[in-house]
Design brief:
Layout lengths: L1 E2 L4 E12 L3 E12 L2 H21 L3 E2 L9 E16 L6 E17 L5 H9 L4 E9 L6 H23 L4 E9 L13 E2 L2 E2 L3 E2 L4 E2 L6 E13 L3 E2 L3
Parallel strand pairs: 4-5
Antiparallel strand pairs: 1-14, 2-13, 3-6, 3-7, 5-6, 7-10, 8-13, 9-13, 11-12
């Protein structure tokens, strides 16, 4: 038998947990086509005013730096106009139709998930609003995060003990605990959270976007190094 010294074990471990989302983000677009740019913009503005007035009844406020984690916010973050074109089959060219389309892109953030049905009702009442999608998110300081990270460390310790036992040794102490990749030699990108995106669907004939909370999977991945007791290996 020869003395192999005290090995350094490096392991990677992770923990996963499903949690309820903290908030929803709804993205949509208001679009109007008219015979002039002014008329198209005026129609879009009127639709936006009606929509935001309905949201204000629910307590919604415009999103800005002061809004923080307000229960319900909205943002009209982009607008545009363009001339409508059509393809002429005879000439093969794109030709102007004489109409102008105006659009405004919107985002609604809903933190009061008890009001999801109310918000869906307001959105459905606006025939000019097209909902593109709904995503569900978990805050960085969600109370589940410490539990998940602790579970990842526990998994790393368990894995290190398995390796040590296979060598006829025992884990002596921890050398390093780090987020995945921070101990060097790893260029792979690791996610610490998975936020699933779900397209909005229309229910029945009401046109109400589906706002049903979807559980989110949080993932904590760590790298760890442990020093073991001495290992003696048989001679070759």
């Amino acid at each position: 038998m020869t003395s192999g010294g005290s090995p350094l074990l490096s392991v990677r471990a992770e923990s996963r947990q499903l949690v309820a989302p903290d908030y929803a983000v709804v993205d949509g677009l208001i679009e109007h086509t008219a015979r002039s740019k002014a008329e198209a913009v005026q129609s879009v503005t009127a639709s936006l005013d009606r929509l935001t007035a309905g949201l204000a009844v629910l307590g919604a406020v415009p999103f800005d730096a002061a809004a923080g984690r307000h229960p319900l916010t909205w943002s009209a973050y982009s607008s545009a106009t363009h001339e409508e074109l059509r393809h002429d089959k005879e000439t093969g060219q794109m030709e102007r139709t004489g109409l102008v389309t105006a659009t405004v892109s919107l985002r609604f953030t809903v933190r009061d998930l008890d009001r999801l049905d109310d918000v869906a009702g307001v959105l459905a009442a606006q025939p000019d609003l097209n909902v593109h999608g709904v995503t569900w998110h978990v805050d960085w300081d969600n109370p589940a995060w410490p539990q998940i990270r602790a579970a990842a460390i526990g998994a790393a310790i368990g894995k290190a003990r398995d390796y040590a036992a296979a060598l006829g040794a025992a884990v002596r102490h921890v050398e390093h605990i780090a987020d995945a990749g921070l101990l060097g030699g790893d260029t792979t990108s690791y996610q610490t959270a998975y936020s699933a995106a779900f397209r909005a669907t229309r229910g029945g004939q009401s046109g109400t976007p589906a706002l049903t909370p979807v559980p989110q999977e949080l993932v904590a991945t760590i790298d760890a190094r442990f020093r073991t007791t001495d290992v003696s290996l048989p001679d070759a």
